[in-house]
Design a protein that fits this description.
By secondary structure, the chain is mostly helical. It has one domain. Helices cover 70% and strands 0% of the residues. The protein has two helices and no strands. Helix 1 runs antiparallel to helix 2. The protein starts with a helix and ends in a 13-residue tail after the last helix.
Length: 61
């Protein structure tokens, strides 16, 4: 996985995590729809090859 591909994946993952965090802090239909839309965008990007998802990674969070 190239460095730029890793950054693209990381950015997409961070965006998805922020949407989920927003939903967990304020669970309403608008937040839920935003999370689902973000998940659809993530899946579509992965399917189309716009982002490359690493087979494994290490998180230090």
């Amino acid at each position: 996985m190239s460095k730029s591909a890793r950054y693209e994946w990381h950015d997409q993952q961070a965006s998805l995590n922020e949407r989920m965090k927003g939903f967990l802090e304020n669970p309403n239909m608008e937040q839920l729809e935003a999370v689902v839309a973000e998940m659809h965008a993530y899946a579509a990007a992965a399917r189309s090859g716009n982002i490359e998802i690493p087979a494994r990674w290490v998180s230090f969070h």
